[in-house]
Amino acid sequence: MRKIIRVHPAPESMHWVGDGFPVRQLFSHKEHGGAVSPFLLLDYAGPTDFPPSEHRRGVGAHPHRGFETVTIVLDGEVAHRDSTGAGGLIGPGDVQWMTAGSGVLHEEFHSDAFTRSGGRLEVLQLWVNLPARLKMSAPRYQTLLDAEIPRVDLADESGLVRVIAGSFSGATGPAQTATPMNIWDVRIDEGKAAVFRLPEGHNLIVVVVDGPIVVNGQGHLRSGETVVFERHGGEIALAAQADAKLLLLSGEPIDEPVVQEGPFAMNSEAEIREAVEDYRSGKFGTIAPAGA
User: Fold this and answer.
1) Which of 129-138, 146-155, 211-220 has the lowest mean pLDDT?
2) How far apart are CA 191 and CA 213, in angstroms?
């Protein structure tokens, strides 16, 4: 079976992104380096119960360049707009895949309906690196609705896999990706187990959103912990000690330099300076006023 490189403990602290997203960072390229490529980081917001409000919570216009954001809504609703004129609303089970490419401004807020009613918000946001040849590509936006994401039952009625990107057991996810990868939203029922085989040479990460689980018959992991595996070695086995919610990520590594500063991820310090200057000079565009 694939050997575990490292178990990253659940973060003890969180920080607010705007006033709408209480975030814990579950892994990052800055801490794990090439072992998590092509992924840059994973933020987990929630689960948090928000009271009804007239004030729309969220994070206002901010820039990105050189990578993609993948927002997976587990509970609640998030509204998105950006400087390309794209946007939309995503709710439970939906995914927003934004390719920042050469540069985009965007904003993310609780939906109007969720703001008025209040409720539980639980969101994962994954940052995915782009190879150098695509870092300055045109921005684009994919809305992947829950109904469009294939569900595959695991053997022995042990749970299911939602295939967001890549393929699993003959089902292919709707996401169009820049490099080969798999993003699976996995549920394993209490007392059940499942075995997964990922492509040889892919980096492999299992994120325990809700646990606990046992990995390869030895590692006992709880909610918020992340397991990073070697690139080779075959299968992994996951057993749920309670109903488990997992994010399973694998991807072909992008073996290029990564320089990440805040909302920019490029290949050199010079490219970061250029991104900052382009943003300050208005080259990322503007977001039209709401209702315009």
Assistant:
1) 211-220
2) 10
